Amino acid sequence: MKHEHFVVQSPATPAEQLILLFHGVRDNPRAMGEIGSYFTKEFPQALVVSIGGPFVSDNGNGRQWFSVQGITEENRLQRIAEVMPKFIEVVRYWQLHSGVSDAATALVGFSQGSIMSLEAMKAEPKLAGRVVAFSGRFAQLPDAHFGESVVHLVHGETDSVIALEHAQAAEARLKALGSDVTLDIEPGVGHGINQGMMDNALSRLHYYVPQHYWQEAMSGKKGDLIAFKY
């Protein structure tokens, strides 16, 4: 399928993980690819691809998944619903292309890219094993369990574009539903990604053991207690 993208890393051997990056509004896949370079160092066997939004942004600079002109809490949901099939199609395309399963796929978004990634998990819970949402939010809080998928929220304390309260509400709702979620708050940071936020994200992907592994161990089921392949 045709879509804007930038391949940040393509391993010489079959990929063990798939990391898809989704930029914010008025950005582009090559710029978001700079964030991807951090993941290439940590996960050399991963296929890392930065995906561009399907539409030119409202002001003509960069791309977007949906328009933010006249955006409200009500019409945001409709705009996301209209473009969601394209988003899911892109993820499935790269999973098929790479031969990587949904369990070994991570969706990494910033701002609007995080919104799309989080909302995609509501639309199709088995789309990915992990979501890393930098400075993002749900358009509407979920009302169903995310299964074995893990959501890592990473947010700046002083974000004035997408307030921290949205991430805190997402964490609380996901926990109430029994879903696996973490929230890391970076003091003194606004709407952006600094080194501390990146370190938190990489640490979560490397070392966080999903709840279902612990539950299996506590239930006495035999099997390897291992973290997600990241």
Outline the structure in words:
The model is unreliable at 222-230 (pLDDT under 50). The protein has one domain: 3-Layer(aba) Sandwich (Rossmann fold), CATH 3.40.50. The strands form 2 sheets. It has a 7-stranded mixed beta sheet with strand order 1-3-2-6-7-8-9, sandwiched between helices. Strands 4-5 form a two-stranded antiparallel sheet. Helix 2 (73-98) crosses helix 3 (112-123). With 230 residues, the chain is α/β, with parallel strands linked by helices. It has helices at residues 29-42, 73-98, 112-123, 164-176, 195-207, 211-218, and strands spanning 5-9, 17-22, 46-51, 55-56, 63-64, 105-110, 130-134, 150-156, 180-186. It is globular and about 45 Å long.
Quick recap:
By secondary structure, the protein is α/β, with parallel strands linked by helices. Helix content is 37%, strand content 20%.
